[in-house]
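Hello,

Our lab assistant flagged a job as stuck in the queue for most of the afternoon. It eventually completed. Since we weren't sure the result was trustworthy after the delay, we are filing this so someone can double-check. Below is the sequence as submitted and the structure that was eventually returned. Let us know if re-running is recommended.
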Amino acid sequence: MIKGIYEAHLPVKDLKNSIDFYKKLGLEIAWSNEATAFFWIDKGRSWLGLWEGEEYKTPYHPALRHIAFEVTYEDLKRSVEWLSTLGIKAGPVNTNQPIDPFIRPSQGNSTVYFNDPDGNSLELMCYVEVPEHLRHITKKLSFSEWEELLINK
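-- returned structure --
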């Protein structure tokens, strides 16, 4: 039945500023008006809606004000440098995530976090093929730690 995510939404303080930010990330505007803008994430399949209003003041929580964008493993390896060229600082959401980007072997994914101008939590994320004998690892690993484990398997 469910085939993917059609849309997600984030609150923003200044729509024009947010439009500029998301365009800088390479997203294409699907449509906009004076208080709302929609960007294609996967053109014709899924989009992100930005809504200008006071809701941007809602405190961050992982269940609120967060979007994860899918990328490839190779793109994720270069993500911190790519974000830096755009003037965006990558960084962990909290102290429980000291490594950026990092691999979660037990979940089979890898991620890097950053924020938009309104403090919405954004994430670049990819699936990672994890050999069965490494799935027990719950510690977050840097790319170098992960690749070392794969070499020495």
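-- support follow-up --
The delay was a queue issue, not a problem with the job. The result is valid. The longest helix spans residues 15-24. The mean pLDDT is 91.
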